[in-house]
Design a protein that fits this description.
Layout (H helix, E strand, L loop, with lengths): L2 E5 L3 H12 L5 E5 L15 H4 L4 H4 L4 H6 L2 E4 L6 E3 L4 E4 L2 E4 L2 E4 L3 E3 L13 E3 L3 H7 L8 E5 L3 H12 L3 E6 L11 H13 L3 E4 L3 E5 L6 E4 L4 E3 L2 E4 L3 E3 L2 H5 L8 E2 L11 E3 L4 E5 L2 E3 L4 H15 L11 E6 L2 E6 L7 E7 L2 E7 L2
Parallel strand pairs: 1-2, 1-7, 2-3, 7-19, 9-16, 10-11, 10-16, 11-12, 18-20
Antiparallel strand pairs: 4-5, 5-6, 8-17, 13-14, 14-15, 20-21, 22-23, 24-25
């Protein structure tokens, strides 16, 4: 009987295995994840879950019983230590698992601060996994001072939670403006005003020189010369595709795991989807870090693993919740030459156009 193995038990992996069963595949399916929790939503981690407004079980993408009911072997808390693409075998420690087809939905990993500038001090937190957020939650005490490094979605969402909980918040963004990579200047202006209205200090064009402290972070030195006393720090300086296993398998990499329009890698028996995968897009190549991409691409890959020939045509869109405002972005923040804005009450729309 055919065996499909999926490595990476996040949004893409869960969607891919569910789609295989929905399409009628009755062979063996194994879904492998390093975390001990069943596949869960990541976006609420820095929003409702951190605020304490969402219980753990509500994070789960599907009830844990779903995988047993669908005859999907769920291997949690399991780290893949090797892939032999020639033998079609993966290693989980001393345990070897053979596959007929393999899908890599390994997602992405947060960029961390170097230890040389204090990135290894206690009280310095990335925001990527459930355990990351659980570790930082006790620090969110009213009156404390948090330094947030990075003015993208993650940094601003964490700033909104911290301000809402009564903390003093300082956010530094090395680029000229917050949200520079993902939004037009008018959108940045709107969210800067939103945050400063909630008491957040935003320093743009300012980097972090180093974090200070003996064992635990207690201060920060900024590139503008400011010296801050802080209680903890949150790092939101972007993510990188998780390609270590693809390298083990000898796959071609190009801004992630390089796939064709069907989701197939340079090895005809190995596929990739989600944050880790780059794919053809409008004459070039792109990698999208979003929930809609993870779901849509994974479902196309599932169909193509079963003999389909459908190209994945991405429809980029993203969202972020900050305070009581929802930011929704359709399309990519590049290649435009004019901006049209509309405002109505507390909301606003910015249209980026290309002639």
């Amino acid at each position: 009987m055919s065996h499909i193995v999926v490595i990476g038990a996040g949004q893409a992996g869960s969607s891919l295995t569910a789609k295989l069963r929905a399409l009628g595949y009755d062979g063996d399916v194994t879904l492998i994840g390093e975390e001990t929790a069943p596949p869960y939503q990541r976006p609420p981690l820095s929003k409702k879950y951190l605020l304490g407004e969402m219980d753990l079980e509500r994070l789960y993408l599907r009830p844990e019983s779903f995988y047993a009911d669908q005859n999907i072997a769920l291997r949690l808390g399991s780290k893949v230590t090797g892939i032999d693409a020639t033998a079609k075998t993966i290693m989980l420690g001393d345990d070897a698992i053979n596959y007929d087809q393999l899908a890599l939905t390994t997602g992405s990993i947060p960029r961390l601060l170097p230890a040389a500038i204090g990135g290894d001090l206690d009280g310095v937190f990335p925001v990527r996994t459930l355990s990351d957020v659980d570790a930082m939650t006790p620090s969110f005490e009213a009156g404390g001072h948090v330094l947030i490094i990075g003015g993208g979605y993650i940094g601003l969402e964490a700033a909104a939670v911290a301000a809402s909980k009564g903390l003093k918040v300082t956010l530094v963004e090395m680029a000229d403006r917050i949200l520079q990579r993902v939004a037009c200047p008018e959108t940045s202006d709107y969210f800067r005003e939103l945050h400063t209205g909630h008491g957040v200090t935003i320093l743009e064009g300012v980097g972090l020189e180093r974090l200070t402290g003996e064992g635990k972070v207690t201060g920060a030195v900024l590139s503008n010369g400011d010296v801050l006393d802080i209680d903890f720090a949150i790092v939101g300086v972007g993510i990188a595709p998780a390609t270590e296993l693809a390298e083990m398998a000898g796959l071609t990499l190009e801004n992630g795991i390089k796939t064709d329009a069907h989701g197939r890698t340079s090895d005809p028996s190995i596929w990739a989807a989600g944050d880790c995968a780059s794919f053809p897009y409008r004459g070039g190549r792109i990698r999208l870090e979003s929930v809609p991409n993870a779901i849509d691409q994974a479902e196309i890959v599932a169909a193509n693993m079963l003999g389909g020939t459908e190209d994945y045509v991405a429809k980029p869109w993203f969202w972020s919740d900050q305070y009581d405002i929802k930011l929704q972005i359709a399309g990519l923040n590049s290649g435009y030459d004019s901006i049209v804005t509309r405002a109505d009450g507390g909301g606003a729309v910015a249209l980026v156009l290309r002639r």
